[in-house]
User: Which sequence fits this backbone?
């Protein structure tokens, strides 16, 4: 019913404005304002009719986007907290790794020192054996040299004491000893 009333008012105003077209400028000016008021009322009616649904749709869309943005913000804050937790635990992991590597280095150093000490002990034993062996060899060589010297000295003494007469006596005794041994056999 309101629509019909508005249509009637609009149509009658339009018709009335057409009939009064020949009147003076002041009346024409009034009718222009009346036409403008009708037009403004029509536009206002359309705006009042359509804008609330547009704004409510727009508001709900904005609220939905705000909720999504808040959700994304919370998720990013959670991811940031998780990353910070990992970074904080990373420093603890690095420190644990340092402690572990120091301990391993100390164990490896101790193992190397023990191996070196064992190797040094083996080298000492081997050197001691070589020294003893060299000592025995030197003593043997010294005995052989001393024996050679003694033989040379004895030969020199015998030569100085031995003359042709003593030599003949010694040869005769030697031959006599051989004959006696032969007769016993």
Assistant:
């Amino acid at each position: 019913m309101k629509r019909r009333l508005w249509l009637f008012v609009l149509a009658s105003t339009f018709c009335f404005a057409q009939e009064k077209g020949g009147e003076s400028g002041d009346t024409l000016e009034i009718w222009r304002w009346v036409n403008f008021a009708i037009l403004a009322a029509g536009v206002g009616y359309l705006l009042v009719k359509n804008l609330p649904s547009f704004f409510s749709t727009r508001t709900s869309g904005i609220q939905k986007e705000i909720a999504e943005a808040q959700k994304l913000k919370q998720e990013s804050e959670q991811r940031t907290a998780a990353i910070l937790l990992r970074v904080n635990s990373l420093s603890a992991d690095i420190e644990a790794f340092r402690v572990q590597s120091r301990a391993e280095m100390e164990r490896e150093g101790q193992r190397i020192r023990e191996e070196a000490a064992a190797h040094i002990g083996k080298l000492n034993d081997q050197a001691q054996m070589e020294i003893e062996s060299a000592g025995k060899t030197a003593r043997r060589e010294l005995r052989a040299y001393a024996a050679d010297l003694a033989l040379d000295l004895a030969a020199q003494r015998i030569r100085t004491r031995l003359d042709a007469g003593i030599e003949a006596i010694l040869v005769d005794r030697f031959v006599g000893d051989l004959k006696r041994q032969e007769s016993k056999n």
User: Anything to note?
Assistant: The longest helix spans residues 25-161. The helical segments are 2-19, 25-161, 164-184.
